[in-house]
User: Fold these one by one.
Assistant:
Number 1:
Amino acid sequence: MALFCVQLDLFTLNLAVPSMAADLHVAPAAMQWAVSGYLLAAGALMIAFGRLGDLLGHRRVLLIGVTVFGAASLACALVSSAGVLVALRVVQGAGAAMIMPVGLALLTDVFPAAQRGRAMGFAFAVAGVGTAAGPFVGGALTEWAGWRWIFLINVPFAMVAALLIRKIPTSDRGRKQTVVDWPGVALVTVAVAALIGGVDRSHAWGWVSARTLGLFAVGALALVAFVVVESRVRHPLINLSLFRDRKYVMITSTGTVANAAIAVCLAVAALYLQQVRHLSPVGAGVAYLLPAIAIALMGPVAGRLSRRRSPLRVLAAATAIGGAALLAVASAHGLPFYIVAVGVCCAALQLGYCLTTIATQSVVRRERAGEASGVTLTAMVTGAGVGTALTDSSLAGKAVLTSGVLSGPLLVAAVACLGTAGVLAFVRSGRAKGAVAGTP
């Protein structure tokens, strides 16, 4: 239910930005910070909150996250200032940063290994309902009731989620370590915030502008300092040995590529439906239903496959199908074929996203599940931000958006997916040959 709130909110707001800007008397570009601020806070804080959940208790931190998210949603619906709305969206993003990694870690904590994949699959299915309903709900509420209802609709779901969380049996008590690496928290938050902020604003400032390069420099320096600190402290925020686990790194990297590609696909599809096909917000939301339903169905599929197939093999197939579907989207002309191609693309790449989050939980110790989930989700959120920013940059300054113009980002995303699938296939073939030859 908590993940449902986050996904519903994430997919309802984009279509409402012009209406929000007009109502609050600001330029649409300024109102875009309501989206950027949320993503910035969510991406920057997931690692810290994921690890804090390991230390302080997954249920406790998840309950705080849902409460913060619901309260911020209610406040967002009542504001009359664009600046206050952006600030509250940052708070809402902080709530989401607690919900996502800690919620998944709580499932790892509660369910035994044999049932964990299935449980996570169903969780993603419920969250997928929010994804499926988001575009239509956002368009319909904006057009018929007003954008404030986009935030109000979160409140009852957050209240129900908070009540349910209190009833979850968990082993939060008796944790051996409660020492928090606060220098590590500060450094990783600054690093991720600066990097995501630079990527997010690159289309407005330019990739080589002083502000963008300055943010990237701050992020890089903070990241180097973070690695130095983590290698010396007794209780690090992130155990750096996590990045020496090749399977974890490969799964996370593939999920990042898949999430970046799906972000490109959805961003281009939104522009195509509204500026090329000239659909209304409600019409665009209806057109999104097939791809969104495909996204919703992939949670249970990922949960089932995680128990029966090698994650790397499934991820290779998912990115290959997703890359081929992106090529089909780039070359599509008729609206029905376009929507079907987007649906196939979203299904394949969402399978990669869901399987990544499930599989990475299986390769780490339960007491560090939140840490691993936070790192993985941060990487995937950052990948989506990079994909969206590159799409915006490539289309900036185009007087007229046509199918041909919009195909450029899709082709780049397709090459990335197909290349990733090829690398995974090569690695797997190398392992198979090593096994036959008797090598380790």
Number 2:
Amino acid sequence: MIETFPSAPVLADAAAQAVAAALAGAVTARGRASLVATGGRSPGPVYDRLAGAPLDWTRIAVTLSDERCAPPDDPVSNARLVRERLLVGPAARARFLPLWPAPEPAAVAVLTPFDAVMLGMGEDGHVASLIPGDPGLEDALTTADLLRPVPAGLGRPPVARITLTLSALLHARAIFLLVAGETKRGVVERALAGDDLPVGRLLARAKAPVRIFWTPDGG
């Protein structure tokens, strides 16, 4: 289940091609596509490559897996990362639905099932902002709702957040998990072996294909 790539650039090439193929297939089959983008270090190079993909971006909507409750120009904003690295060039024609300020759940629901969900993972096994230690984590992992707030004091930086729930992430046609470094590979292997981590819940419950892209380069 874990696909290994020798370096971060090679992983970024493969991930961008895979996500682009999922979006292109959706546009061909249904006339539109939706992408869940994510924050962190791993996706930036993927966005750089994906932004130039020869897709009909006017038919593609982009939202986020989670967001920090910060102004859109703040360096910690996932929306800023997506605007600066993905929504440029041809991809600037895509429709973007930020998660902060929080949208109406119906605005997110209309994008489901998501055609491609991109996720990173923390060393604690969190995906999106489904973070161990959050008193509301179990609810976010089990509710049928699409969005949940996350209190300040969790994650890095420890600011308040909003996240797609596990149910929302699973409402997808394809999921792409980007992982770098030996430590995080160990977390994925523990999750696959049954450790109760947010990423493990995702992998155990996913009905859509989940591709885990891993490189020892970075972390």
Number 3:
Amino acid sequence: MIGRLNHVAIAVPDLEAARRQYRDVLGATVSEAEDLPEHGVSVVFVSLDNTKIELLHPLGEKSPIARFLEKNPDGGMHHVCYEVEDIIAARDRLKAQGARVLGDGEPKIGAHGKPVLFLHPKDFNGTLVELEQV
């Protein structure tokens, strides 16, 4: 059902510092920051040959990333994102197998302009999983 790894998301306390580190120290191609108010985050994408790294920073106090950084002030891995061909079929199959879909269960448009869903970390070995339709 899942396809390739789309990205690994890392929550960071200072988005511009993290952006510079990936660009200047690691020599990666790094996007400009983009605010996604509907998700409560600012994002930067680090392009790699085989996937992407998504750097996340809270956009406002109610951001889920703000809560994550309260518990992990230095930042850390937030979620992994896998591609699926049909997000509704994937959601329905996962729910039938007992997996919990976060939120209202309806896909939202993610940072790449495509439908996404998040799966409860307790159902996936403590890892928050994002599914993105490709």
